[in-house]
Amino acid sequence: MELTAASHSIPLSDGNKIPLMGLGTYGDPSTTPKGTTLEAVKLAIEVGYRHIDGALMYFNEHEVGQAIREKIADGTLKREDIFYCGKLWNTFHPPELVRAALQQTLKTLQLDYVDLYIIEMPIAFKPGETFFPKDENGKCLYHETDLCATWEALEACKEAGLTKSLGVSNFNKRQLELILKKPGLKHRPVSNQVECHPYFTQPKLLEYCQQNNILVVGYSPLGTSRDASWVNLACPPMLEDELLVSIAHKHKKTPAQVALRFNIQRGVAVIPKSFNPHHIKDNFQVFDFSLSDAEMKAILGLNKNIRFVELPMWSDHPEYPFNDSY
Which GO terms describe its molecular function (predicted)? Predict the structure, then answer.
């Protein structure tokens, strides 16, 4: 199948389609100026992006929704042309809270449905008013829930037409199997959103997901921010890698474009986050070149099996997913 800027959607296992190139929208709410997300998403849609990845927990879904609605209103696209992925946050895992969480996302977006709704993390926090509940010592308050029960509540949301597809994020093989082998499973997860880039190629998890018709959506496909509170700074900046730089030079592209093209050619969707207009435009320019088999093999060889996004603050949670090898 020929992937082009105008047509790069691939089928999901439930018959729906997802564009392989998306825009991530996470930004630190304390440092991102009001209106930044709105302008970034509007520009992305004008550039050609048709896949927007967001979350209630990003605290900017109102701007994402406004951008989508404005571009529908001005005739740039129809609702069915845009693919929006929303996420169930850790404090909403109890089955009785799942639908209300999705409805809160829809109300914030001012849209009738999302295209994909995913469990953001396999770990549950204590439900309540705050997204990051802590005890008096500052320790995160966890909550014991059953991922299968949470999934059943998501299935009901799909059947009610609130989301077209269902998926997960940051799930390891064992956690995926919990869902796939659940008695009475009605709707399989179509996707697993995980960290994936040339320094962390996820070969075993990717193979397992592909065997089970689960699309891998790669977050932090360019490495990630250097925020020491949640990022492994021991991993060197990936886009300065000599091999990526040399391949980029050969194709008259940037190392970022090479890294994105690498994942797309492996059948991995990518959601690079940017609020920078230049980067938003640049990141989309990955459909006018391709990497040779030799180049793909060389980039695969860069794998260091090192995560940028370790989330060490939750590593003592019984469902912390990164203790397993994959």
Answer: Delta4-3-oxosteroid 5beta-reductase activity
